[in-house]
Amino acid sequence: MDKKVAALIDKYGVTERTLTFLRAPMRQYINGQFVVAAESMQVLEPSTGALLAEVPSASTEDVEAAVKAARYAFDEGEWSRWKPAQRERVLHRLADLVEENLQTLAEIESLDAGKAIEGCKAVDIAGSIDLLRYMAGWATKIDGATRPVSVEGEHFAYTLKEPVGVVAAIVPWNWPFNMAIWKLAAPLAVGCTVVLKPAQQTPLSMLFFAELCAEAGLPPGVLNIVSGRGRTIGNDLVSHPTINKVSFTGSTEVGITVGKAAIENINHLTLELGGKSPMLVFEDADIQKVVDATQQSIYFNTGQVCSGGSRLYIHRSIYDQTIAAIAERASNMVVGDTLNPETEMGPAISAGQKQTVMDYIGIGLAEGARLVCGGKDPGGEGYWLQPTLFADCDNSMRIVQEEIFGPVLVAIPFDTEEEVLALANDNIYGLAASIFTRDLSRALRLIPKIESGTVWVNTHDMIDANTPFGGVKQSGIGKDMGPEQLEYFLETKAVWIAL
Ligand code: NDP
Asked: In the structure, which protein residues have their CB atom closer than 6 angstroms to any atom of ligand 1?
């Protein structure tokens, strides 16, 4: 660990367990064993850009061993004989251990992913605990159906729900722990086994979670965690001939590659991809709710939020006052050290991501958008950005059409419901959308016409273990969370018995 990161830790203090974890050699988790890799890669702390940890860079052989272990655990190991209630209990134990280690996990995640710690605790870790418990409850409730059939003769027909098998799970860096739990809780609940690869920038919380899996008594091979590079071992994993399902969260670009690999092996596939989610603000909206929504979406997590409300369409009659209110709040956000409980926004994840965002700000200026606040490079050693708002944009601008994945909000005025609906749907993505109005009839009229996986009314980015999350159009295929997610890890077998 670099001395700049050590100084940061000294300044705010962390738990003993965080220190012990960060000081020990990092290891992958394969077949219930903590395994060192032949090669390593560096993980940087985003607010200093300095070395946080050296982590394993998995090889093709590591992936091979992890898939083999998951295969054995599914086909023949202890896990394959476990009753649903045993799976339920182990997931509850895991949830309890995550809860006991909430502070440690949030510290590790905060240092690794540049997350403001209080938000990380309240959203990333607490949300993961809820999901583990929610999916634990489903383990004992997976059932089929009896089917009256009309063919000649006497038959008893029914359906059996069976786990699909070995799941290859790939997650991005913006919600490293939370996305990983989204990917593993449902398949483990229904009896699948999992090989998970975190993003190369942010593997630490999952490497720590491996310790909790061992403590919880998860049998060997049920969950395997390999840390390494997506283009090499991520690709090895999703194209492996003996996996049964690919569950991916990340960019649309990589999702297409991953999807092709899955279809080559006729594997099940879930893709949770990018977004450019619209917020439709009508003349009767509560402006404070709009301001709050920007805080909980596009300016939360430094705008590295797939469903962040990044396109803001405001009725012309309240356009100026809404822009002013958002700019006022955004300009006063506390941007700073991620371990500081006061901090509202940390840095971007990497120098590359910061550059991408700064490039888009340059593009917005060149396209003629009006910069209302932010947009400057704050400098410093880390990957700092400012909460940024562009007004008077046009729907054809690149900053309006493309996913920036930073704290950059673009605003456009509108006059009619028909006009704003067309503007909102004029995008390749369809992950989420929100409508701000006091007119419930209008909201109910618009909801079915909006092309997105989620629609919020008078709020944005609300998520719960019991509601499905996933996109349409180029935002993906399939759902995470809610009862709907379970189906994506189940096969339905039809059984006929001639009587
Ligand atoms: P990427 O698509 O670049 O990477 C996602 C994961 O895929 C990483 O683990 C990466 O590994 C891995 N990967 C890269 N190339 C391959 C490959 N050829 N085969 C297999 N795996 C590969 O996304 P980011 O990490 O940059 O995350 C940001 C994106 O994620 C945004 O577009 C965002 O919208 C989306 N996202 C979507 C969500 C949703 O629910 N819809 C939720 C959260 C984020 P490595 O890190 O080593 O490159």
From this structure: 170-175, 179, 197, 199-200, 229-231, 234-235, 238, 249-251, 254, 257-258, 272-275, 306, 403, 405, 431, 471, 475-476
Distance CA 296, CA 301 (A): 9
| Residue type present at position 213 | C
pLDDT tens, residue by residue, 44-76:
999 999 999 999 999 999 999 999 999 999 999
Q: What is the mean pLDDT of residues 251-255?
A: 95
Pair 173, 154: CB distance under 8 Å: no
- Write the DSSP assignment of 49-101 as a string of letters: TEEEEEEEE--HHHHHHHHHHHHHHHHTSHHHH--HHHHHHHHHHHHHHHHHT
CA distance 382 to 335: 12
Give the whole-angstrom CA distance, residue 474 versus residue 191: 30
Where are any strands of DSSP class E within 192-296?
Answer: 193-197, 223-225, 245-249, 268-272, 277-281
Is residue 306 annotated as part of the catalytic site, yes or no? Answer: yes
Confidence of residue 260 (pLDDT cuts 50, 70, 90): very high
* Catalytic-labelled residue, pool 272, 344, 403, 451: 272
Ligand 1 centroid–CA 372 distance in Å is 31
- Asked if residues 372 and 323 have their Cβ atoms less than 8 Å apart, the reply is yes
Q: For the packed helices 102-113 and 176-190, what is the interaxial angle rounded to 10 degrees? A: 130
- What is the CA(249)–ligand 1 centre distance, in A? 6
Residue 92, pLDDT score? 98
Other Cβ atoms less than 10 A from the Cβ of 340: the count is: 17
Contacts of 229 (CB under 8 A, 6+ apart): 41, 57, 200
Q: Which of 196, 238, 217 is nearest to 32 (CA)?
A: 217
The DSSP code sequence of 18-53 is HHHHHHSPP-EEETTEEE--SEEEEEEETTTTEEEE
pLDDT tens by residue, 212-222? 999 999 999 99
Q: How far away, in angstroms, is 350 Cα from ligand 1 center?
A: 14
Q: What percent of the chain has pLDDT over 70?
A: 100
Residue with tokens 């394969």: 30
Average pLDDT over all residues of the chain: 97
Residue 131: which pLDDT band, with cuts at 50, 70 and 90? Answer: very high
